[in-house]
Design brief:
Structural class of chain A: alpha+beta
Distance between the termini of chain A: 37 Å
Oligomer: homodimer
Largest sheet of chain A: 3 strands, antiparallel
Strand order of the largest sheet of chain A: 1-3-2
DNA sequence: GGCGTATATACCTTTTGACGTATATAGATG
DNA sequence: CATCTATATACGTCAAAAGGTATATACGCC
């Protein structure tokens, strides 16, 4: 299996993941949002799935894709040794990120 | 300039950066540590330099390379929206709102 | 100035990966 | 069962990127 960074090199795949970060989506949904040909979306999703970035569940003819955390964690772990170059107060940063995450979750509830 | 993720897709470049995370190093130093041909190291360093990942300073005939934080920060920022999928600091409210996702996470944990 | 060391670049070859088009599969619906 | 919708795959083409070899540049030292 290719390394997570190899997978993330492709802009359309990053765009797909960013959309899925908000919510589960069907292939057609992604196709519309990104203005990409359907086979292209399916192919990227296959690569993302095989690399563990996403997971599909079946809903009639549709496939609903959602994020899986493992490969992201690997990327995050690889990044760790470099954080000291820009994050002198790591715990302050964590608090900040937690706050941002909480806000986005609250927003989602309103739908 | 290519996106940071494009640069990081190459394994030798990630290896170079990981070595530089510890300390500043010369080209020959990297060449030895990684058992790569010298032109290969120089070429990767050029790409890393042009993408802002590293910076060189001159010491006689040698070039000493060191990490620059900016592109790493960009990667870290891109990763932010995905942290909620594995970040352990979930308070009660967030657990409630994320019920569906929590179920899939629990299933995966069992493996 | 000639030579050794350190690094960079040029050029060619090969591989990898993305894209487009066509087609296959699978379920839904009348 | 014929047809429509949703998604996946197969195949051919093309371009970007990596690797190897040779050579250039730059500095230090005798």
């Amino acid at each position: 299996m290719p390394a997570p960074f190899t997978i993330l090199a492709e802009p359309s795949r990053r765009a797909i993941l960013t959309l899925l970060a908000t919510s589960e989506r069907s292939v057609g949904d992604l196709e519309q949002q990104l203005r990409l040909p359907q086979p292209s979306v399916s192919k990227h999703l296959r690569i993302l799935r095989e690399a563990g970035f996403v997971q599909a569940r079946v809903d009639a003819q549709r496939r609903l894709y959602r994020i899986r955390p493992e490969p992201f964690m690997q990327v995050d772990a690889w990044l760790a040794p470099f954080r000291r170059f820009w994050a002198p107060h790591l715990d302050a940063l964590e608090r900040h990120l937690d706050r941002v995450e909480s806000q986005s979750r609250r927003r989602r509830k309103q739908r």
